[in-house]
Amino acid sequence: MKYIPIAKPIIEKEDIASVVSVLKSGNLASGQLVASFEKAFASYCGTKYAVSVSSGTTALHLALWSLGIGKGDEVITTPFTYIASVNAIHMVGATSIFCDIDADTFNLNPKKIEEKITKRTKAILVVDLFGLPYFVPEITELAKKYNLHIIEDAAQAHGASWKKTKTGNLGGVGCFSLYPTKNMVAGGGGVLTTNSKTVYEKCLLLRNNGHLHGSYNYQAFGLNYEMNEIAAALALAQLKKLDSRNAKRILHAQTLAKTLNGIKGFILPSSPLGYTHVYHQFTVRITKNAKLTRDTFMKKMQSNGIDCRVYYPKSLHLYPHIAALGYKKGDFPIAESITQEIVSVPIHPLVTDSELTYISTTITQLLS
Ligand SMILES: *Cc1c(COP(=O)(O)O)cnc(C)c1O
Hints:
The chain is α/β, with parallel strands linked by helices. It is 37% helix and 14% strand. The protein folds into two domains: 227 residues, Type I PLP-dependent aspartate aminotransferase-like (Major domain) (Aspartate Aminotransferase, domain 2, 3-Layer(aba) Sandwich); 126 residues, Aspartate Aminotransferase, domain 1 (Alpha-Beta Complex), CATH 3.90.1150. Pyridoxal-5'-phosphate binds next to helix 3 and helix 4.
């Protein structure tokens, strides 16, 4: 039977050749290719600097750490994200303050942020969920008004943009993941982007045990968050194809949106004017008015060979160890209800035209 996975890394000849050549060279530790990748990624995003690291999670930790955010500080963020965004806040000892999301975009609702700001607030950690940038002008204005840092979790949004400005360069410190399911991969790895020389120089020390690589002049406390040459070689090869692969995701999303418009109880993802969504996931909502429940719909899609997933099944404030920080059911009603309605369907670049038609006819048959 046909089986269409929700995500699959695209590894082509060039990717394999670049990794093999690193293996043959014997130079595996952070070196020339890491430096080239950082230069290329900064130039792609339009930022002055990029710092490669070992994962998206370590990029987020490094962002908060390099900004000096820690114990006693509050960071406002969304409860509807992958938990790494929140773990990074807890890693520096700061307090995560959740704020509800906007039902149409799934991103942090800027109208609900201001009431969460206190004297202790140091930053807003925004997430470009599923490939759509956060509400840029509204959140930038709030950050300016209250003198807050913006940390952008762009782990799912490489190459997305707002009015031609790319993620990673929208005003905050950008954090990207190169995990195997993301829009570009390195078999694991991450990268941080910034226009601040201070943040950049601090990151170089913090990510390498407190010294510049190979200098042994220890200047501060640090850890080892470095990227290796194998990952950098793969990331460089992937970066070259990022735009064409994102274009394919966008085309697939447009095709599905066109063919699936107007089904009762079925809500398509929305992308506000001025934003380029790169569809890391194509996430739809199956509401109470639909012919099937979300869970039945998902089971039927799966039995038809179409891999569907719920990203994410529960608002983060409802997990016991996070609820213990003082949250309860009902605190973030939009995030809570959205988790009961969402389902992501495959649209990655390896989905063929005939598979896309099969996905849309299957959805139409199941729901109309
Ligand atoms: C994948 C992801 C991360 C973490 O990245 P890793 O490379 O897996 O550590 C963080 N935030 C979001 C939103 C993600 O999707």
